[in-house]
Amino acid sequence: MTPNDPGPHDVSDGGQLPVDELHEALLEAKQELRELETQLPEPLTLSESIRELNTTTDAYARFGSDYHDDSE
Questions:
Q1: What is the pLDDT of residue 31?
Q2: What is the DSSP-derived secondary structure letter of residue 5?
Q3: pLDDT interval class at 17 (50, 70, 90)
Q4: Which pLDDT band holds residue 15 (cuts at 50, 70, 90)?
Q5: 49 contacts 58 by C-beta, under 8 angstroms
Q6: Quick check: 55 pLDDT over 80?
């Protein structure tokens, strides 16, 4: 790694966050949705949103591990 090559963890692609930061943001959003759901009246839930977020979080986790494997 050189000063001009910051490495895979610091690189942004077109203004996008690195995978690790996206994964962390997704996990935080999932936790916030769960907390909000506990405050909703009984017939209302965020289950579908949480399920979709879980799927996306899992995908980013797999992508992140693939990303790290490729960089070694």
A1: 92
A2: B
A3: low
A4: low
A5: no
A6: yes
CA distance 48 to 44: 11
Alpha-carbon distance of 33 to 3, in angstroms, equals 40
Say if CB 31 and CB 57 are below 8 A apart: no
3-state secondary structure of 16: strand
Distances (CA, A) of 69 to 8, 23, 66: 11, 16, 5
- Residue 1 carries which side chain, given as an amino acid letter? M
d(CA 37, CA 47): 8
State the Cα–Cα distance between residues 72 and 70, nearest whole angstrom.
Answer: 6
